Backbone:
């Protein structure tokens, strides 16, 4: 689209917070940049809220490594990032302009954005080689506007932009882990990182959508009641010296499925509490990415280890439907104005939060 095709109400420049290079918080800078122009199949979305994720921070720190060298600095796709890059994968906003092929009747629609572009066929789109994730391979939501394919926009599931943005990558990942693990009603699940974005949504999806019995792991048991409200049947501290025994005692038997985002510190516990034939789904390693593994445990117990990243468009739509039905509640720990992105990322990294951290643009709490 030419700039002349945009309404005069849309400015030529916008506020954005960009990552200027790999490094610490000092590499996150507020800048004035051009408002992106939507291509023929895209829409321009005015961003009202964008949730913060570990991936925003890991991208800035270059912490994903490459396939050839896990110590090398790289983005989420394990390839070099092209800087400056606008982080943020969890966008909620309003369609304010359309590309040439898009029916303008969608102007004014309030949307959340499916966070990646891929040519993969339905069901395999999250595994495609050409995947482009917002915030890593293309610019994301720490800004006032974003251009995004119309076919990847969905109506916001709740009436608040902030709440709607809170689900996107965390809840979607949790949903995918549970579907990929083929959880069935009555199964016993252990969920780590249960106060975090992925874990807190996983508790709700596993218990309220899939009918599982959930044991949640948290450091601080002061959140126990809240987690039981979300659907956990038991909450245990991961700091316990007798954690595997605590889990087995609480479950009354071995565990069918573990959903883990923590990695090394809990890895042996995850394997030890699983029943023969159990499944371990992993989507993160917030506590440490390198671990020791006694391979015999895997084959002698017939375990399945399932690597999970993002999910499919169909899963995203099912997740949004469950949110609209009230089965999954938004969990917001704290909001920050966009300009405070550094503080928001610093806060996000602290232990002890419960739920999501959101960057908010002006007047965005409700429609
Ligand atoms: N593969 C994907 O598609 C995908 C998508 C989203 C996230 N992730 C990854 O999943 C992980 C979690 O993401 P998130 O957004 O849920 O993060 P988060 O909101 O920061 O939550 C992290 C959770 O992990 C717990 N935790 C941290 N260190 C721990 C340790 N040493 N032992 C036990 N628990 C520990 C925290 O508990 P306390 O606060 O009590 O310490 C908190 O509950 C990250 O590694 C992230 O990169 C992957």
Residues:
């Amino acid at each position: 689209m030419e700039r002349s095709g945009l309404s005069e109400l849309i400015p030529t420049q916008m506020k954005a917070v960009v990552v200027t290079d790999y490094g610490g918080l000092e590499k996150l800078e507020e800048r004035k940049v051009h408002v992106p122009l939507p291509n023929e199949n895209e829409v321009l979305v005015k961003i009202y809220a964008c949730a913060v994720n570990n991936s925003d921070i890991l991208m800035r720190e270059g912490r994903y490594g490459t396939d050839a060298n896990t110590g090398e600095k790289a983005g989420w796709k394990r390839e070099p990032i092209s800087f400056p890059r606008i982080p943020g994968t969890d966008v909620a906003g309003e369609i304010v302009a359309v590309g040439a092929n898009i029916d303008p009747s969608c102007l004014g629609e309030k949307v959340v954005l499916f966070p990646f572009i891929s040519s993969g066929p339905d069901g395999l789109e999250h595994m495609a080689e050409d995947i482009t994730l917002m915030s890593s391979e293309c610019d994301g939501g720490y800004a006032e506007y974003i251009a995004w394919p119309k076919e990847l926009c969905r109506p916001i599931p709740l009436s608040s932009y902030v709440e709607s943005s809170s689900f996107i990558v965390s809840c979607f990942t949790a949903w995918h882990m549970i579907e990929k693990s083929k959880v069935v009603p009555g199964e016993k699940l252990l969920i780590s990182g249960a106060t975090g974005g992925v874990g807190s949504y996983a508790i709700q999806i596993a218990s309220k959508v899939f009918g599982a019995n959930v044991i949640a792991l948290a450091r601080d048991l002061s959140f126990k009641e809240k987690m039981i409200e979300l659907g956990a049947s038991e909450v245990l501290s991961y700091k316990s010296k007798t954690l595997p025994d605590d889990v087995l005692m609480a479950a009354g038997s071995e565990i069918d499925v573990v959903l883990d985002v923590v990695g090394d510190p809990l890895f042996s516990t995850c394997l030890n509490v699983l029943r023969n034939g159990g499944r371990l789904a992993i989507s993160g390693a917030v506590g440490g990415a390198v671990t020791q593994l006694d391979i015999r445990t895997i084959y002698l117990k017939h375990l399945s280890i399932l690597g999970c990243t993002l999910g499919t468009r169909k899963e995203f739509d099912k997740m949004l439907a469950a949110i609209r039905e009230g089965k999954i509640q938004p969990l917001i720990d704290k909001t920050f104005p966009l300009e405070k992105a550094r503080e928001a990322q610093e806060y996000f990294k602290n232990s002890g939060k419960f739920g999501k951290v959101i960057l908010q643009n002006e007047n965005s709490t409700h429609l």
